[in-house]
Design a protein that fits this description.
This protein is α/β, with parallel strands linked by helices. The protein has two domains: 2-169 and 349-374, Rossmann fold; 173-348, 3-Layer(aba) Sandwich (Rossmann fold), CATH 3.40.50.2000. Helix content is 43%, strand content 17%. The chain has 15 helices and 15 strands. The chain has helices at 16-30, 73-86, 101-108, 125-138, 149-159, 172-176, 204-214, 231-235, 240-243, 254-261, 279-286, 297-302, 317-328, 331-345, 350-374; strands at 2-6, 34-39, 51-53, 58-62, 65-69, 90-94, 113-117, 143-146, 164-165, 190-194, 222-226, 246-248, 266-269, 291-294, 310-312. A seven-stranded parallel sheet has the order 3-2-1-6-7-8-9, with helices on both faces. A hairpin with a 2-residue loop joins β4 and β5 (65-69). α1 (16-30) crosses α15 and α3 packs parallel to α4. The radius of gyration is 21 Å and the shape is elongated. The two termini are 24 Å apart.
Length: 375
């Protein structure tokens, strides 16, 4: 099957949607399909062979974050050429309501279209205002996928219609084994965090406050943090007496990200909201790391209601500190959660998820063919 995939966000900026698209494309190629991805990207940046650049992205505020999207004459021209030259059996667009390449692809395409919605967010003024403009594109979509119940709710409330629930995938084998960073996790306990350090909804301030509560009573406890953002600025938020017990790595490679996960005793997902699935949490599960996560819908789903990881009240640093203390003091409980996490994340392996996505492709292609015969 010839499959075109439209990515709305800049390919070279880390993000859950971009990683989902990359892993899906590679899983589909592994299944024998011919895949082409178009994404906002500079022409002079090195890209995988299956990615077509659509020009430089520009930052816009979106869902409590900053999205780097492409929506201009150059992007329109490149999307139109990509769709025409690709002659795809099915076009798969991600986040079609975002003003970027997926929306453009819907406008110019005439064949079967599948859309995946990743975002979970409350009522949006942008989506309400843009409804008349969006309708002409979104009405062309034949099949819809939501990565979580929260994303599905967003789709129904904002765009109407319904969707098949197919969760984010995880390349579980990639995370299973790795050599810890030198000197980690150590003997006094180590807590890890992966995410954008300067994005409030990722919850790093909550974790830093919890560490400040725990550290005085646990002299060997350390914090390992990785992700985009100003490491020096974040470090200054900790009291001087414990600042040297937190290591801020900044943005790391995919290889080092896996090493970070294997360098801690407990992984923390302190997000305060705005998550529809929680891909980093699922990756930590695939590494077999015991997890403490905020009790939001996305994490409650992926952690099986708390059976595959500890949950705490979102935004409550004291509750997070108490949950971390319980796990750090209980190796047997950590081992139990590790086994439960590995079992739970198996259902999110890309070998399973990609086949479910292909089933949606086949359904919409057959549906278009049936309509054509009937006419």
């Amino acid at each position: 099957m010839r499959i075109g995939v439209a990515c709305p966000y800049s390919w070279d900026v880390p993000g859950g949607v971009q990683q989902h698209i990359r892993d899906l494309a590679e899983a589909l190629i592994g299944l024998g399909h011919d895949v082409s991805v178009i994404a906002p990207a500079d022409d002079d940046k090195p890209l995988p062979g299956y990615v077509v650049p659509a020009g430089k992205a520009v930052p816009v505020p979106y869902n409590g974050s900053v999205a780097r999207v492409a929506f201009g004459p150059l992007s329109v021209s490149r999307v139109r050429r990509w769709v025409k030259d690709g002659n795809f059996d099915v076009l798969h667009v991600h986040e079609p309501a975002v003003p970027s390449l997926s929306l453009l692809a819907c406008w110019v395409a005439s064949g079967p279209i599948v859309a995946t919605v990743h975002t979970a967010m409350p009522r949006s003024r942008w989506l309400l205002a843009a409804q008349p403009v969006l309708r002409s594109a979104l009405e062309k979509i034949d099949g819809r996928i939501a990565v979580s119940e929260a994303a599905r709710t967003t789709l129904v409330e904002h765009l109407g219609g319904d969707a098949v629930l197919i969760p984010n995938g995880v390349a579980t084998a990639r995370y299973r084994h790795a050599r810890p960073l030198t000197g980690w996790p150590g003997t006094g306990g180590a807590v890890g965090f992966l995410g954008r350090m300067d994005e409030p909804r990722k919850g790093l301030p909550v974790l830093l406050k919890a560490f400040e509560l725990l550290a005085p009573e646990r002299e060997g406890l350390r914090l390992l943090i990785a992700g985009p953002g100003d490491a020096d600025e974040q470090g200054q938020k900790l009291p001087p007496r414990i600042r040297d017990r937190a290591l801020f790595l900044g943005e790391v490679s995919e290889e080092d990200k896996v090493r970070v996960l294997h360098s801690v005793d407990v992984f923390c997902s302190p997000n305060t909201g705005g998550e529809s699935f929680g891909i980093v949490t699922a990756e930590a599960m695939a590494a077999g790391v015991p997890i403490v996560a905020s009790d939001i819908d996305a994490f409650r789903q992926v952690l099986r209601g708390g059976s595959a990881g500890e949950l705490f009240a979102a935004g409550d640093a004291a509750a997070l500190a108490a949950a971390l203390a319980r796990l750090l003091d209980d190796p047997a409980r950590r081992a139990e959660l590790s086994v439960a996490a590995l079992a739970a994340v198996a259902s999110y392996d890309w070998q399973v998820v990609a086949r479910d996505v292909v089933s949606v492709y086949e359904t919409v292609v057959l549906g278009r063919a049936t309509v054509g015969v009937a006419q």
